[in-house]
């Protein structure tokens, strides 16, 4: 483990835990607001905000675009808005690929649910595909956004729509039931996540759908016929056991899948873009997007 990763993990462990209980989740959600696009990113890109299917969408086009397109779905357990750390990931991806990044700001629970999010993300995908006019379209997401990204590609497969070129998932939440027996074991090592708050968020997001439905827990799909999926997971992230299970199941279904684990990485460690572990993961994404791999 690098020194910078170790220090980042210690800082996270000292910070307030947002998922300790449902009440803590509610209090934290009430305080959080979406941060504005950082000045460094505005200097790097032209920023456009529009409304698609009733929800805001941000498009960041580099001053020197490569012609590639990437849709990024942010995490936050489906209840928290996009945070500054998400801008760090997006900035790093743009600098490495020159891709135009589209960020759909899907409605959050408890006011919205997955039943609204899936058609919204599909509308955004269609708009990006029209704009791309044959260019390569990629999909990425972290944590809850990774779960939504998987549900989206499953939804497209079910409707015989084309798949993205590849899907990049940073610590995806693939099973909202939180029933994997390996999760409580890792919970003690995880500096960020707690089971009670996550289960509460999942119930809000499902809003009537079973927690084990593919829309909420995409690992319960067959996982056949999906685009190549690249997972980047931390070894101290309690979502690791389900990421491992997803990779095994997708491979058994003949869907291309690759899982990379940073042994001492925390949840969505790629947001710590100053660490060697995060840089290696982001460089790996760039090699795929840029057509090197």
From TrEMBL:
Keywords: Hydrolase. It comes from the Bacteria. GO terms for molecular function: hydrolase activity. The active site is at residue 143. The keyword Membrane does not apply. Residues 70-270 form the Alpha/beta hydrolase fold-3 domain. The keyword Hydrolase applies. It holds the Pfam family Abhydrolase_3. Belongs to the 'GDXG' lipolytic enzyme family. PANTHER family: AB HYDROLASE SUPERFAMILY PROTEIN C4A8.06C, ALPHA_BETA HYDROLASE FOLD-3 DOMAIN-CONTAINING PROTEIN-RELATED. This is Alpha/beta hydrolase.
